[in-house]
Amino acid sequence: MALIKRAVNLGFTYTGTEPVKIEWFKDGNVIAGANSALLLKNSAETSDSGIYSFTITNELGSVASQNIAVTVNKFIAPAVVTQFIVSPEDVLVGASITLSASAIGDGPFTFKWYNGDTLLASTDLPVFSLHNVSQEDSGEYSVQVSNQTSFDVSDTVNVSVVPPVSIHTSPSDVLVMEGSAFELTVEATGGGELRYAWYFNDELLDGVS
Q1: Among 71, 153, 202, 203, which has the minimal tally of Cβ within 10 Å of its Cβ?
Q2: pTM of whole model > 0.85?
Q3: Measured distance CA(53)–CA(62) in Å, rounded
Q4: What's 102's DSSP letter?
Q5: Residue 32 domain flag
Q6: How is 121-187 classified by DSSP, letter by letter?
C-alpha cells in the first residue's frame, strides 16, 4: 500500500546470461518504457493502483514473476479536536444542555459524546443536546472525534446540575416594641451558593443578607 503523491518503487534482482529483456506489466498490459529491474513512480496517483508483474527474457528462455498488488490511497489528515463547548456548565434540574465541537482533518467525522466513561451518543453532527436533565447528569463531559484513520479526544468540561431554590420555612410575623431589635429567619435549599436579599415594603434593604 502506498500514499498518493509519494514515491513507489518496484524492483528485483536476477542472475543469468546477458543480454536480457525486461518488461513490466500493469493489469496485464505492457508498461511502455519500463525495461529495467526497477520500476519507479515518483509521485503515485490512485490510478496507479493495480496488479503489476514483469518478465525477464534472454536467449535461453523467459521467466515471469508472480503478481504484485499495489494500492495507492489518498492521504487522510488525522482528526483533531479544536474546540469543545458545553452550554451552560451550571444548569438547573429540568433544563437542557448543549454540547458542541469543532475539528480539523479530513472528514467525514464521527462524534462520540461522553459523561465520564459513559457513552451518551454517537452522531455525524458536531452538536448534541440533553433535555430535562437531572442531578445524575452532573459530571465530566468530553467528545471523541474520529475519521477513517484516527481519533482525538477533547479536554473535559465539568457540568453541575443543581436543584432550584426552594424555601422551606418562611419568616414569621413578629411584634416588638419601638426601638427594639428583631430577627427574621428563613430556611431554604438549592444548588450552589445561596444569596439572600431582604425587602421592606417592596424596597431592597441595603447591607442586609
Answers
A1: 202
A2: no
A3: 13
A4: E
A5: yes
A6: EEESSSEEEE-S--GGG-EEEEEEEE-SS-EEEPPPEEEEEEPPPEEEEPPPP----TT-------E
Query: Would you call 101 exposed, middle or buried from its count of C-beta atoms within 10 A (0-12, 13-18, 19+)?
Result: buried
Domain count, the chain: 2
Q: Which three cell numbers stand for residue 105?
A: 482533518
Cell numbers that stand for 181 in this block: 431589635
Q: What domain range is 19 assigned to?
A: 2-73
Burial of residue 99, with CB atoms counted within 10 A of its CB: 0-12 exposed, 13-18 middle, 19 or more buried: buried
In the block, cell 489518498 appears at 74
Query: What size, in residues, is the chain?
Result: 209
pLDDT tens sequence across 92-149: 999 999 999 999 999 999 999 999 999 999 999 999 999 999 999 999 999 999 998 8
pLDDT, mean over the chain: 90
Q: How far apart are CA 129 and CA 163, in angstroms?
A: 19
Q: Of 156 and 40, which is predicted with more confidence?
A: 156
Cβ contacts of residue 98 below 8 Å, gap of 6+? Answer: 86, 87, 127, 128, 129
Contact call for residues 178 and 195 (beta carbons, < 8 A): no
Q: State how far the alpha carbon of 51 is from the alpha carbons of 28, 38, 84, 167, in Å.
A: 8, 16, 45, 79
Residue where the block lists cell 506489466: 25
Distance CA(166)–CA(158), nearest Å, equals 24
Instruction: Determine, yes or no, domain membership for 52.
Output: yes
Strand 90-92, strand 157-162: pairing = parallel
